[in-house]
Amino acid sequence: MESASIAAPTATPVDHSAPGAKGLKADALGYMSNLVIAVASTAPAYSLATTLGFIVAVHGIGTHAPAVLLVSFVPILFISAAYRYLNLADPDAGTSFAWATRAMGPQMGWINGWAIFLADVIVMASLSEIASVYTFQLVGWTSASTSTAAIIIGSIVWIALMTWICYRGIELSARIQATLLTTECLILVIFAVVAFANVYSGLHGSFKPQLSWFNPFALGTTPLIGGILLGIFIYWGWDSGVAVNEESENPAEGPGRAAVLSTVLLVLIYIVVATAAQADAGTHFLASNSTDVLSPLGTRVFGSGVLQKFLLFSVLTSASASTQTTILPTARTTISMANWGALPKAFARVHPRFQTPSFSTLMMGAVSIVWTVGLLLTSSPSAVLSDSITGLGFAILFYYGFTGLACAIYFRRELFKSWHRALLVGLVPLAGFGGMFYIFVKSYLTVSTPGYNYSAPILGVQVPIVIGIGGLLLGLVFMVAQWIFMPEFFKRRPQTADPAILEAHLSHAPS
Fold this sequence. Notes:
Blueprint (H helix, E strand, L loop, with lengths): L30 H12 L1 H14 L7 H25 L6 H9 L1 H33 L3 H4 L2 H21 L1 H31 L20 H15 L4 H4 L10 H28 L1 H6 L5 H9 L3 H34 L18 H19 L4 H30 L8 H29 L15 H23 L13 H7 L6
Helix pairs in contact: 1-8, 1-11, 1-14, 2-9, 2-14, 3-9, 3-11, 3-16, 3-17, 4-5, 4-16, 5-7, 5-14, 5-15, 5-16, 5-18, 7-14, 7-15, 8-11, 8-14, 9-16, 9-17, 13-14, 14-15, 16-17, 16-18
């Protein structure tokens, strides 16, 4: 009898860079959780507290802060459309890193991943400092709220606590986010209602809102651009809801839709609260309290009662929530980069029980603590923190802009099959890229002006440029090092989108 020879089956190698193959917990988040994380990451109360006064203080803006917030929203909305369609094609936790790699090659992908990491680390100092100061103010510990040592200790505690929450699991993170965001938004609504009531009852010389406040054409180019750079920061963070796509139900569809909706909700929150604040207190009051407008506004609007404490609590919850949701996307960017072979494998480790990026999460927390302590130990921490907010705007503009460009490039073979595709998947993301690039260049020219910034220049270079542009250039150095020691990733070639993606989702659109 002849024995048959049976060939052993060939094992198919696992592609750990593929969406859903990184070991993260699948189907842990629903659509509402995506939306909550997107809005909470932007930290509405914190963003208003630390940015509104600076926008008003820009020479030439005055009462037109609401107009600046409206104009800043437009490129953000356009970029959210790019996130929507790129996430349909590739629901990868690395978001801009993965998409830029596919569309424009590994070098552009790597530097976009670095820009996400850079922006998130820079902002952690401001977030944790605000959380620390507001904690002390909330409990009435005035001496601690002005003590550098106490603020540093409080900041470290807040970063460590939020790192631990992110480490323990995405579901715990989402539940905490929902509670914090609900509280925050409710208090902001009460603040706006009471402020408008004060205005229309004629209390303490308030100013009734005017249509001219919302007219950007009344502003010159220089003040408008200066305000928009700050406005971009105030909207930044909604993309965190997309960074948890691999842990979401319907990962290709839900996070992208949540991203677009979150930007609309944010512009409504910001316009209402900013208008109420300006109407009640006036621009001089806001500019005079630019480092933190909500604390003195709370005393002005509510007095010293329980509602004033609630407003302090809203900023505290906002900053702490954003601290948490800043760690989330950074850890997912680095775990994606590691699985793609763009970072050492240690960054790809996933906790066997919690199914979270263990090493990446802890590393983000540690780096954030080092950065925060370093900034708070400078001779003028408030000035450096203020300039760091401007500086991180360059990193935000960079990776948001290139995400818009990546969308048009990745889908380029599909754009001319219908006007609907050409508009939504091509022109809108490209307009977002153009807007971000224009603001980047104009902002560089603006902050290069001597005397414009809060800190003294370093070797003749303004501090926001050192932090923002210098940080991006430092990323090029690290990228070259990775290229030398991990060259395989950098051999990847750009790709184009599968035609079936848009066929499935835009099949009912008019051609």
